[in-house]
Structures are given as structure tokens and as C-alpha cells.
Write a sequence for this structure.
């Protein structure tokens, strides 16, 4: 398995090549091609590794080289290649490959073309360091690295003030989470004396519940920041200021899923604490519901999809909190595919409409862009949870699992499913059908995107259609990483302990086989209700926005307070602005007045004032007459002579 | 033989006279003359101590001082000429450019 080192380092090499020679030698098409080749190589390598793991169910722990030594613990740059990391790595590299290809078309003509692909390659390298890590330090390295890449790419068009601000906001909000994450790592090191996952897992049973809970909650704090869960979600919608391929890759498919991946990776730690699992579950559920309500009333095409990302990440966390780690990871995989598809579809729309974002100003562009419209429809159906698309298999199993475990969580997730179907089809109808509200000038130039943009759309759409039928394969594949009794790297004691920790999900029975699950959905009451909910959401959107039977403005007026609450994003931004931005500003002002104005200026200005004052006095002695000076000299001499005599 | 204290008293008197001259006179030439007076008072003191200590070093100093006084008088008068040409005046109270 030695070839696995290629996976992270191939994008790094591409980054170095583009970074050094991008502007001078490679320029427009070549730097994109280098980046695509770099990530494609790692995609191929990871698929080969994936097949190996799928056949044997083994895990491989490679130490590439020693990074640093703390006491008698060596931190190595390493690769832990087990089903979980193999799945995540494959998702990252495969989705990246298609998004890179799409980006070669999307970024065409941008003057910073090489810089874009350099950053993207850097991002993929960092993300792979994160997924392949076998210890918390390397995970944290990748975690910060993707944060950096995200910052650079959100602010890619840094001359736009909104983009620069959004980049800064995402960086600062992520710092809050990362700070908690770092504290969690330190506490884990103090507690376990090691940071290697496998050693930690085997030591978990011997540590008190309180400390494990603290570690898990601190680490989860990092996940809340990175995966944009409530209350640290505010950066993600604003991150849509970046180029659309960035939104698709970083802010939908891969980086924001890092938190979900991390929780699944450290499943034994989270399973050891009831409180931690409950926190994960409720934060995820709240995010899933609240973000869906925010998505209902937005008008920016990318922001709607961003809120849907928040909401779907909430579903993943909810699944993990319910103890359904396999379902959570499967939803991550399916979400990565269909959300990348939706974002790339919106990117294709944006290119056709010259970066017009407001869906109220679009309409009836489906006929001019059939491929984009068709693939977008597939993505929307998957998000809404309509069979046979992958979203149905992944999302409905989470909601059904919630029904068995916790009714409150089930209610919110169920309501969220209706809202999801509604807002995505509101977007779909307003953009591609409905009435013609498009600027006639734009309509003249309306055209389908070039093949290097449509082919990734078609590939991802095909994946969205077929991936759901591999549900059983994925769940079985993940068992050696997420099913306590199949986890080869756990000791017997740890296996039993983790199994006990996941007791909440023991009576959950979800059909693993996709066809059985489909049959079950169509026959059982719960399954029919869920399907009907999704269809009702779509139908409501159809009635309001396509048939125009009901005026959406009137509905908005009818539920004025609710509409305002949703439109203003539950006032989260305002509250944060009031407390943190304005509070910080006030505090800075006080510190500026006390520290700068009084203390520092006091010292500096004070010394100057003393000089002026004393100078004014001594100036008087300079009378400008020789006789005066002579007299002064005489007096001085006399004083010194007198002193001389007296002291002697 | 006159005791050396007498010479010292004379020297002291001349010194004070020189100082007073420098302090009270306004004419710049008078200032120069007063300075000469002080130099000569020092000469007298040197010679007096020379006599008392039976050492010729004092007389050697006197010759040096005389020479330097001559040179100084020449430079001083030259400066006074320059000042006079510039200001048309030799009154030190009116030449007070360094007043603070």
C-alpha cells in the first residue's frame, strides 16, 4: 500500500508547479490542466486503494515520516487507510476532479486563472491531509489548512469589498471553532498521553465519562465551526462570494463535511459520552430545521443552496447523534455528489446570465440550457428525497432512524424535509420556468455552457441516479470503521464499550438494501408519509411559483412576522453584529482611550511638555549679552571654588 | 624685598577690575582691554609664585601668555572690525543676537 502517499502529495506538487510557474509559463489553459492532472492522479490512486479495502476490509497505518516529538510521543505524518478514510478520500478526490474540470471552463478569461488553480490544489492537499491523518495533530494541520484555502478562495476576487469581508468573516468565525478544537486536542493529549486515533480508542474505556464528554464537546465545537452548524453557521452563506466552483467544492461537498467526517472518525470517543451524542444530535437537528426555514425566502441562487448545505449537514450530524454513523457518512457521500451538482448547475446558470444572482429576475431559461436544466432537476429531486435518486436513500433513512430514537428530532427533521423540497423547487421553477422576468438584453446572449462544464454536470447527475442503489455496499463497506464489533483496531474491551455507547440506535432497523428500502418506503406508513411530504413540498412550490395560483407576496404578508424572521435569518447576523462586532468596537474604543490616549500619549506628550516648560524657564538665562555671560561664569566659578574649599 | 602676598593682592585686584570692566562696560573695545587686564593679572600671579617657589616654569608661562595675548589682541581687534563693518556699532547691548 506504499503508493498511498501519492494521494495527498500529487495535488501538492501541482500546487507548487502552478504556484511557481503559473503566471510565467503555464498561464491560462495549462495551469488548469496541471491541476486537473494532479487531482486526477490522486483520484485514481484513491480508487485503487478503495477497491483494495473494499475487497479485504483491512486497514493500513503508514507512517510516512516523523514530524515532531513531544516528550516520548512522536507525531508522524501518516496515512490511516481504512474504509472510512478511503470513502472520504474518494469523495474528495473524485468530486474535486469533476469540479476542477468544470472550473477550467468557469474561470475562463479570469486574469488570476493560475492563482485559482494553485489555491484549489492547495485545498485538495490540505483536505487529504485531514482525511488521511491517523492522529489529531495532522488532522488539525489539515483542518487549519483547508480553513486557509477557504479564506483565500472566498476572497479570490479580493477587489470586491463584499468578498474580502466574507473571507475575513469565515476566517474569524472558524477561529472560534478551531480554538475549541485545539483545546480538545490538548485535553486529549493530557488525558491519553497520545494523539493517535487507534491508541486513543483503546484507552477510552479507562477514562472517566466527564473528561471524555469534555474532549468530545470541545472537538465538536471545532466541527460546529467548520461545518457551519448553528450557532457558528453565519459564515457559510456569505462564503458564496467566492467563485462557484469553490462554493461547490469547499462550501458544499468537502470542507464543510470535514466536521461530520471528524465526528465519525472519532466515533468511539463520541460514543463514550451520552451528553456528547445528544449535543451532536440536537445541534444537527436545529441546524437542519432552522437553515431550511432561512432558505425558504432568500432570493440569491447561491445562498439558497448554501442554506440547503447547512440544513443537510445538520441531517448528517443528527444521524451521527442518533448513533447512525454509517447513514450519516452515506448521506455525506450522496450530499457531496448532488450538492456539487446543484452548485455547478447554478454556476452554469451564472455564466450564461453574466453573474446575475437574483432568482426573481430569472425565469424561463430552461429551454435555452437543456443540459443544465436537466441535471439541475436531477440534483433538486435528489435533495428533495424523491426515489430513485441518491438523496432519497440517504436522507429518508436518517429520518426513519430518528423516528425510532427520538420523536422530537424526528418532527424537526420531517418538517425540514418538507421545507427542503419546497425551497429547492421554488428555486428550480423560478430559475428555469415560471414567467419570463429576464432582462431582454441578457436573453439575447443566453446559451448552453461549453462541454468542459456540461460533462462534469452529466457525470455527477449520473452518479446521483445510480449511487443510491449502492447503499448496501456502502454500509457494509463502512462496517470495519463504524460498526464496533467489526472494527479490527479496537481491543475487545473497547469494542464492548463502544457498542454499549451506541445503545440508542440498537433497535433501529433500516433496510440496507436499496430495493428493499424502496419497497419498504412504498409499503409502510412512515415511508409513504415521508414520500408524500417531499412530493407535497414540490407540489406547493409548483402551485405557487409555476401555476401562480397563489401570490407568494400575499403569503409573505399573511405571515409577516414569520417571513421577517426567516428573511432576516433569525436575526443571528444582527445579534452577532451587535454583540461581537459592535461590542468589540466599543471595547476597542475604551482601550484606545485608556491605553493609547491616556497612558501612551500621556508619557510621550508629557515628556515633550516637560521639555517645553523647562526650556521656557532656562531660556531666560540666555540674555544675549557678553557681560551677562561673564557674570554667570563668574558666579559659577565662585560657587565651585567655594564648594572646593568647603568640601576639602 | 616685597613679600609675594602683595603681588598676589595686586593680581587679584587687577583680575576683579578686569571682570568688572567686562561686566559693566558697553563698548566692545573696552571689553577687549579688560580681558587684557585679566591676562596680565594672571601673569603677575605666575611671576609671584615663581619667585616664591624658585622655579622658572612660571616665567616660561608668562612668556607664552604674552605671546598668546598679542595674537589674541590682533584676532580680537580683527573681529571687532568685522562686527563694526556689519553693524556700524560697537555697543554690546545692541549686539544681542543670541538672546533666548
Amino acid at each position: 500500500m506504499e503508493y498511498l502517499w501519492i494521494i495527498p502529495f500529487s495535488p501538492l506538487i501541482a500546487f507548487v508547479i502552478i504556484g511557481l510557474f503559473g503566471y510565467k509559463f503555464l498561464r491560462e489553459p495549462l495551469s488548469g490542466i496541471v491541476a486537473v492532472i494532479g487531482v486526477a492522479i490522486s483520484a485514481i490512486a484513491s480508487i485503487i486503494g478503495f477497491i483494495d479495502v473494499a475487497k479485504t476490509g483491512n486497514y493500513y497505518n503508514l507512517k510516512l515520516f516523523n514530524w515532531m516529538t513531544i516528550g516520548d510521543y512522536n507525531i508522524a505524518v501518516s496515512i490511516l487507510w481504512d474504509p472510512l478514510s478511503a470513502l472520504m478520500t474518494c469523495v474528495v478526490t473524485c468530486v474535486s476532479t469533476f469540479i476542477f474540470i468544470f472550473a477550467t471552463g468557469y474561470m475562463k478569461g479570469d486574469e488570476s486563472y493560475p492563482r485559482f488553480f494553485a489555491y484549489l490544489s492547495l485545498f485538495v492537499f490540505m483536505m487529504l491531509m485531514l482525511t488521511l491523518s491517523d492522529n489529531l495533530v495532522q488532522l488539525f494541520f489539515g483542518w487549519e489548512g483547508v480553513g486557509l484555502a477557504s479564506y483565500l478562495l472566498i476572497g479570490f476576487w479580493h477587489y470586491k469589498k463584499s468578498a474580502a469581508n466574507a473571507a475575513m468573516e469565515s476566517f474569524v468565525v472558524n477561529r472560534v471553532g478551531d480554538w475549541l478544537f485545539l483545546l480538545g486536542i490538548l485535553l486529549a493529549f493530557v488525558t491519553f498521553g497520545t494523539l493517535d486515533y487507534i491508541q486513543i480508542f483503546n484507552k477510552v474505556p479507562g477514562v472517566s465519562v466527564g473528561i471524555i464528554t469534555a474532549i468530545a464537546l470541545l472537538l465538536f465545537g471545532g466541527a460546529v465551526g467548520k461545518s457551519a452548524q448553528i450557532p457558528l453557521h453565519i459564515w457559510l452563506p456569505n462564503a458564496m462570494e467566492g467563485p462557484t466552483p469553490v462554493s461547490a467544492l469547499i462550501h458544499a461537498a468537502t470542507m464543510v463535511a470535514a466536521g461530520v467526517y471528524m465526528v465519525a472518525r472519532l466515533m468511539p470517543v463520541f460514543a463514550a459520552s451520552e451528553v456528547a451524542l445528544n449535543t451532536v444530535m440536537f445541534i444537527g437537528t436545529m441546524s437542519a430545521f432552522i437553515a431550511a426555514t432561512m432558505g425558504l425566502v432568500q432570493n440569491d441562487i447561491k445562498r439558497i443552496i448554501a442554506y440547503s448545505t447547512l440544513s443537510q449537514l445538520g441531517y448528517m450530524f443528527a444521524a451521527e447523534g442518533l448513533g447512525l454513523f454509517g447513514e450519516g457518512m452515506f448521506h455525506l457521500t450522496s450530499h457531496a455528489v448532488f450538492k456539487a451538482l446543484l452548485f455547478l448547475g447554478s454556476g452554469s446558470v451564472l455564466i450564461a446570465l453574466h453573474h446575475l444572482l437574483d432568482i426573481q429576475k430569472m425565469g424561463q431559461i430552461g429551454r435555452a440550457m437543456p443540459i443544465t436544466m436537466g441535471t439541475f432537476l436531477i440534483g433538486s429531486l435528489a435533495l428533495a428525497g424523491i426515489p430513485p435518486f441518491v438523496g432519497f436513500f440517504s436522507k429518508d433513512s436518517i429520518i426513519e432512524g430518528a423516528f425510532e430514537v427520538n420523536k422530537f428530532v424526528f418532527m424537526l427533521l420531517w418538517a425540514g424535509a418538507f421545507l427542503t423540497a419546497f425551497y429547492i423547487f421554488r428555486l428550480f421553477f423560478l430559475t428555469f420556468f415560471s414567467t419570463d422576468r429576464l432582462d431582454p438584453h441578457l436573453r439575447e446572449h443566453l446559451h448552453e455552457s461549453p462541454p468542459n462544464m456540461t460533462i462534469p454536470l452529466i457525470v455527477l447527475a449520473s452518479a446521483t441516479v445510480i449511487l443510491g442503489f449502492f447503499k448496501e455496499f456502502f454500509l457494509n463497506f463502512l462496517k470495519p470503521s463504524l460498526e464496533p464489533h467489526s472494527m479490527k483496531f479496537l481491543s475487545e474491551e473497547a469494542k464492548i464499550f463502544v457498542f454499549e455507547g451506541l445503545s440508542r440506535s440498537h433497535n433501529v432497523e433500516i433496510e440496507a438494501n436499496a430495493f428493499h428500502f424502496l419497497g419498504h418506503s412504498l409499503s409502510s406508513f412512515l415511508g409513504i408519509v415521508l414520500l408524500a411530504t417531499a412530493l407535497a413540498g414540490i407540489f406547493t412550490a409548483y402551485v405557487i411559483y409555476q401555476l401562480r395560483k397563489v401570490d407568494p407576496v400575499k403569503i409573505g404578508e399573511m405571515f409577516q412576522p414569520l417571513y421577517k424572521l426567516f428573511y432576516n435569518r433569525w436575526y443571528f447576523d444582527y445579534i452577532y453584529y451587535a454583540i461581537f462586532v459592535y461590542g468589540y468596537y466599543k471595547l476597542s474604543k475604551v482601550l484606545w482611550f485608556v491605553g493609547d490616549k491616556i497612558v501612551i500619549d500621556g508619557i510621550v506628550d508629557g515628556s515633550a511638555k516637560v521639555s517645553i516648560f523647562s526650556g521656557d524657564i532656562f531660556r531666560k538665562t540666555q540674555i544675549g549679552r557678553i557681560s551677562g555671560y561673564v557674570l554667570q561664569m563668574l558666579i559659577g566659578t565662585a560657587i565651585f571654588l567655594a564648594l572646593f574649599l568647603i568640601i576639602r | 624685598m616685597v613679600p609675594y602676598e602683595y603681588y598676589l593682592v595686586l593680581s587679584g585686584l587687577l583680575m576683579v577690575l578686569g571682570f568688572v570692566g567686562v561686566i559693566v562696560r558697553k563698548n566692545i573695545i573696552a571689553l577687549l582691554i579688560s580681558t587684557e587686564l585679566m591676562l596680565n593679572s594672571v601673569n603677575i600671579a605666575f611671576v609671584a609664585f615663581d619667585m616664591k617657589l624658585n622655579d622658572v616654569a612660571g616665567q616660561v608661562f608668562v612668556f607664552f601668555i604674552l605671546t598668546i595675548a598679542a595674537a589674541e589682541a590682533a584676532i580680537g581687534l580683527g573681529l571687532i572690525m568685522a562686527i563694526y563693518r556689519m553693524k556700524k556699532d560697537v555697543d554690546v547691548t545692541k549686539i544681542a543676537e543670541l538672546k533666548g
Summary: Chain A has a mean pLDDT of 89. The longest helix of chain A spans residues 6-56. Residues 422 and 538 of chain A are 5 Å apart (CA to CA). The interface with chain B takes residues 619-627, 630-631, 634 of chain A (CB under 8 Å).
